[in-house]
Each structure stands twice: as structure tokens, then as C-alpha cells.
């Protein structure tokens, strides 16, 4: 077995030699240090570095002495830049981050995704845009809105001393038409335009709106729209600030989760719903485009921007300050995908070493940036003027990897990941692979927010549950397009306005049954009749059997004003409508058909 000496022992033996004539001692020392000929021992450092290679000459050069003295002089300096290959780093909370790569092994279980992305359940059977939307706004949600809207309308009539029977009840066809009008308002980007202007007969109006509703009826339905039972609301609001919209939000969230399987990457971030009315959990952020808004946490699929889960922020409950909110938000949002091997990308408000370790135990990996005040970050990973631009420091601890990258002088970006376990740097950009993966997966929630603002259905209101309902309509339309395109990938593939075409088709499909029903109303205003004709909806002519059975009955002339109440038994041979002697020809053709 070869003898081993430390560097300190070597120096002691050299310095202890006093030049005596003891030839045996001198030869023994020379033989011991003649490493080139005997190879009988090796010099190792005090750090016991296995990668250390001894000098073949067995001598310490003057250059080595000068380097050693310089390092000793620099030990007193506070800002020492460590060498990434030899140093370990200790954070403020006591975590030790190893600079060396962990031992390579097979792929970890938390990095294996067990789900297949794509539509599932009812979403696999869709045929039209309306079918795709019904996966998220199903009959249960519509019936809940219709029931509570009619209930509140009747209560309002009673409170004003009116007969509640004067309220015309809203049915499913009419409620779908209201939603269709809202989608078309978003398509035409008219969310900030006056409804009176849109319903006018002038150049600023659009016939589709006048053909669907009268302006008074549409405003009345929207103003009476409610989403919960008003009689039990005060009891529920004691423990839940979100009670006026909680049941509908839970139903919508459940539909989003059961109709789609997310891919291997998801993102968690916040969405801001603009609102300036009164609300106990309204936020004020002066640096945001929507300074007054309500916060909503979303989890979206990276590949398709599909909204899979959401959680509203309602502020603190009671007088206790909310602590650990960021960890609880992430854990609640990822509950449907536990043990799936999916990677979650977050920003610096959510990311922490404790959260990452908890998710790894549930077979979910996390990748995200870290704020500089987090105690898990070692001091060496912070910004330092001595660190060169483009350099990276890596640390590994308990199945977690941390990297500190210097994009420019005196600035450092720190990321934490449980998905990566190696020092990987891209050869083209020179950036760590962790940063490149983060840049690829960080944007879906922002993309969803951009889509919501581009064709938003939101209208100005003073009641905070209504903006949440508008936002549900926006998210439902985005999810409906995702499942529809997954089912029909070649649909409008070459068009740059794919989303606009989808929303327009969706709005018209929701309106068509109601407009066909409205076109058959006998005493419809002429402006509405004209708008219906321009939109392609005509009143159906009575059949021959109806004409024969109805020829013996006296009907009011459809041309004369109703105040005259002129009735006749004669019918127009073209349209079958009754016409009096003043408006009929010899051949019994009314004035409209004669033209």
C-alpha cells in the first residue's frame, strides 16, 4: 500500500532538514519524495479532493507560493467569489447546497408524467362550438342563474309595489341568447360602448342586437341577474365572503377539471379582474393596467392555455393575518393532479424550498424564480460586482437544484427547481437550461389574461359577482376553443383570426333558437321585424291547413294600427296575413306582398 503525506507533512520534513552529513537520512528523504521514479506515495491536500492531481515533479514552485499567499491575503475580504466546482454554500436558514452534481441515477418518479393531455368525458363528443361551450356552462349552471334571476325579479317587483306577475320569466333559450349577445359585444369590442348606441337604428347600431332583444328587456335581464339564493345569503356570508358567487364558481371549476387532462407542464399565476365598485377584497395596484381589481389565482396548461383550476382571493378572514398564503394556494390548486408527475411553474411570490419539498413527496415537481429575501438562498448566490456577466452558480440540496445567473453587471436571477438535477448550460445562449425551461413555461396565465381582454364580454357594473360571471364566460370561451380545436385540428387552420371566428360562430349559435322564436311573434315592432329580416329570420307563412281552419275567423288587419282594431276574414294569398278592405287588392294581395 502506497504511503500518503499531506502537504503540511511534506513542508515540515523539508524545513526540518538541517543539512547534516547523515547520508542515510538524506537519501531516505529523497527516496520518499522521488515520485517520478518510485511512485511510492502521493501528496494529497487537506481538503481530500478526489479530483486533485499531484505535480509530477514533486516540487512546490514559486508561482504556487505566490498564489497561496494571495489567497491567504484575500481571506479577510468579505465579498469572496467562490469557485463553483469546489465550494459548498450555506443559506441563512441552515440549508447546505452542494456545488457538485448529485450522483446520476435513473429518472426520478416525480419527473414521470402519468397523464395524457387532451379532452376527456363530455368534451370528446362535441360537434359544434355551442356543444363545446356547454361542457363548461352546462344546464345546471344555466338553471341556477335562471332560477335566481326570476326569483330576484319578482322580489323587486313586490318591493316597488308592482304585480310580480308582470315580470316575464326568463327561460333557457332567452338566457342563452343573452350570453350570445355578450359574446358578440366582445367580438365587436363594444364592451365600453353605450348600449343605446348599439341598439340605435342609425349608423352606430348593429341589427343583430335589435333583432335579438329590445334594449329595455336586455338591460332588465342583466340588472336582475343573480347567482345565489338571496334569502340565505346573509347566513352564508358570515363564514364566506365569496358566498354570492361560490356555488356557481365551484360548478364551473368542476366542469373545467372533468373535461380536460393537462399536459406535463402547468403554470400557476394570478389574474386581475377589473372592478371599481364596492368590494371588501378589492385590490389596489397602481403599477397594474387595471389599478382597481379583484384577484384570481389560475392554473393553466402550458401547451394550450387551458384553464384547469382557479381560486379566488377574498382577503383575510376575521382579524387574523393570513400567513403562508402562497403555499396554501399552490397546494389547493394542484390537488386534482397529485401523483401525476406534472411540473408546476410559479413566480417568485410562490416559490420556496419548503413548498418544493412538499410537492416532491406528492410526485409533483416545481420550477420557479425566487425573491432575493428568501432565507433559502445562500449569500454567494446574491448579486455581486465581482461576478462576471453570464456566469452561473449551481447548488443541490435534497432533490432540489438552485441556480444563480448573472444577466448583467450587479444583477443575479435565482431559480429553484426539483425537476433538474444537473449542471446544464445551453451552448448557444450560455444560459442555464433551468432558465430556458422557465421562459418556455411561465406565460400561459398571462396569455389567458390577454385573450380575456382582447374580446372581453365584461360591462360596467357596481355589483362584484357580475364581473366574476363575465370572467367565467371569457374563460369558458377559451376552454371551449381549446377542446374544439383538439377535436377538429384543421378547422380554420390557415386563418389568422381563428379566435374571432370561433366567438362569432358561438354567439350566433346561441342566438339562433331565440331569434327564430322571436320572429314568429305576431305584434313585433316594425324596427325589430326589419332587423330580423336583415339577419335572415323571417316569419313562417301558415300552412294550407292553417289557412283553411283560420279563414272563417275574424282577425285584425296586420297593416292597420292596433288602435283602429279593424278585423276581417280575408287573407293575403301570398303571406296568409289578414288584410282589411283598405289594404287589399282585388286578388286579395296585401300591400307588402304587392311590392
Helices and strands in order:
Elements: E1 3-6, H1 7-16, H2 23-33, E2 41-44, H3 62-74, E3 89-90, E4 96-97, E5 118-119, H4 129-134, H5 139-159, H6 172-187, H7 195-198, H8 207-212, H9 215-224, H10 233-237, H11 243-258, E6 260-261, E7 265-274, E8 283-284, E9 292-301, E10 307-312, H12 325-333, E11 343-346, H13 353-361, E12 365-369, E13 392-397, E14 400-408, E15 411-417, H14 433-441, H15 444-454, H16 465-487, H17 498-518, H18 526-534, H19 544-550, E16 555-556, E17 567-568, H20 591-594
Descriptive report:
Helix content is 37%, strand content 13%. Strands 7, 8, 9, 10, 11, 12, 13, 14 and 15 form a nine-stranded mixed beta sheet that branches. With 595 residues, the chain is of the alpha+beta class. Among the domains are: 3-77, no CATH class; 137-226 and 490-538, no CATH class; 541-594, no CATH class. It has helices spanning 7-16, 23-33, 62-74, 129-134, 139-159, 172-187, 195-198, 207-212, 215-224, 233-237, 243-258, 325-333, 353-361, 433-441, 444-454, 465-487, 498-518, 526-534, 544-550, 591-594; strands at residues 3-6, 41-44, 89-90, 96-97, 118-119, 260-261, 265-274, 283-284, 292-301, 307-312, 343-346, 365-369, 392-397, 400-408, 411-417, 555-556, 567-568.
Amino acid at each position: 500500500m502506497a504511503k500518503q503525506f499531506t502537504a503540511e507533512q511534506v513542508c515540515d520534513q523539508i524545513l526540518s532538514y538541517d543539512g547534516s552529513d547523515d547520508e542515510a537520512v538524506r537519501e531516505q528523504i529523497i527516496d520518499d519524495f522521488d515520485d517520478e521514479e518510485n511512485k511510492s506515495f502521493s501528496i494529497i491536500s487537506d481538503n481530500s479532493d478526489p479530483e486533485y492531481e499531484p505535480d509530477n515533479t514533486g516540487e512546490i514552485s514559486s508561482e504556487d507560493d505566490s498564489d497561496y499567499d494571495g489567497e491567504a491575503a484575500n481571506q479577510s475580504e468579505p465579498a469572496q467569489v467562490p469557485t463553483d466546482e469546489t465550494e459548498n454554500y450555506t443559506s441563512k436558514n441552515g440549508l447546505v447546497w452542494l456545488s457538485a452534481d448529485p450522483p446520476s441515477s435513473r429518472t426520478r418518479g416525480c419527473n414521470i408524467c402519468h397523464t395524457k393531455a387532451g379532452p376527456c368525458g363530455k368534451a370528446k363528443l362535441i360537434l359544434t362550438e355551442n356543444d363545446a361551450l356547454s361542457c363548461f356552462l352546462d344546464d345546471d349552471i344555466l338553471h341556477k342563474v335562471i332560477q335566481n334571476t326570476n326569483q330576484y325579479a319578482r322580489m323587486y317587483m313586490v318591493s316597488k309595489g308592482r304585480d310580480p306577475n308582470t315580470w316575464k320569466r326568463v327561460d333557457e333559450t332567452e338566457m342563452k341568447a343573452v350570453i350570445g349577445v355578450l359574446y358578440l359585444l366582445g367580438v365587436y369590442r363594444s364592451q365600453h360602448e353605450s348600449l343605446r348606441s348599439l341598439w340605435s337604428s342609425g349608423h352606430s347600431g348593429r341589427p343583430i342586437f335589435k333583432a335579438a332583444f329590445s334594449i329595455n328587456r336586455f338591460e332588465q335581464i342583466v340588472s336582475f341577474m343573480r347567482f345565489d339564493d338571496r334569502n340565505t345569503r346573509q347566513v352564508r356570508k358570515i363564514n364566506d365572503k365569496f358566498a354570492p358567487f361560490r356555488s356557481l364558481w365551484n360548478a364551473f371549476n368542476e366542469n373545467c377539471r372533468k373535461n380536460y387532462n393537462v399536459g406535463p407542464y402547468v403554470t400557476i399565476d394570478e389574474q386581475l379582474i377589473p372592478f371599481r365598485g364596492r368590494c371588501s377584497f378589492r385590490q389596489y395596484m397602481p403599477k397594474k393596467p387595471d389599478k382597481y381589481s379583484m384577484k384570481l389565482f389560475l392554473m393553466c396548461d402550458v401547451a394550450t392555455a387551458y384553464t384547469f383550476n382557479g381560486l379566488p382571493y377574498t382577503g383575510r378572514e376575521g382579524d387574523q393575518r393570513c400567513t403562508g398564503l402562497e403555499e396554501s394556494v399552490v397546494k389547493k390548486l394542484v390537488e386534482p393532479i397529485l401523483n401525476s408527475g406534472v411540473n408546476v411553474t410559479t413566480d417568485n411570490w410562490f416559490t420556496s424550498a419548503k413548498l418544493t419539498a412538499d410537492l416532491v413527496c406528492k410526485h409533483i415537481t416545481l420550477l420557479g424564480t425566487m425573491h432575493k429575501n428568501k432565507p433559502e438562498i445562500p449569500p454567494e448566490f446574491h448579486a455581486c460586482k465581482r461576478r462576471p456577466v453570464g456566469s452561473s452558480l449551481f447548488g443541490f440540496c435534497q432533490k432540489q437544484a438552485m441556480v444563480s445567473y448573472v444577466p448583467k453587471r450587479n444583477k443575479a436571477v435565482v431559480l429553484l427547481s426539483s425537476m433538474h438535477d444537473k449542471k446544464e448550460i445551453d451552448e448557444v445562449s450560455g444560459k442555464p437550461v433551468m432558465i430556458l425551461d422557465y421562459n418556455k413555461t411561465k406565460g400561459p396565465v398571462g396569455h389567458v389574461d390577454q385573450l380575456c381582454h382582447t374580446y372581453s364580454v365584461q360591462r360596467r357594473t357596481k355589483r362584484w359577482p357580475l364581473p366574476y360571471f363575465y370572467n367565467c364566460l371569457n374563460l369558458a370561451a377559451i376552454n371551449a376553443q381549446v377542446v374544439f380545436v383538439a377535436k377538429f385540428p384543421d378547422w380554420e387552420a390557415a386563418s389568422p383570426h381563428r379566435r374571432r371566428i370561433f366567438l362569432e360562430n358561438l354567439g350566433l349559435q346561441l342566438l339562433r333558437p331565440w331569434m327564430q322564436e322571436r320572429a314568429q311573434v305576431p305584434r313585433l315592432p316594425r324596427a325589430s321585424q326589419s332587423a330580423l329580416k336583415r339577419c335572415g329570420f323571417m316569419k313562417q307563412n301558415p300552412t294550407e291547413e292553417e289557412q283553411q281552419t283560420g279563414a272563417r275567423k275574424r282577425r285584425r288587419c296586420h297593416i292597420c294600427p292596433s288602435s283602429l282594431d279593424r278585423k276581417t276574414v280575408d287573407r293575403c294569398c301570398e303571406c296568409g296575413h289578414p288584410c282589411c278592405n283598405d289594404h287589399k287588392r282585388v286578388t286579395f294581395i296585401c300591400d307588402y306582398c304587392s311590392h
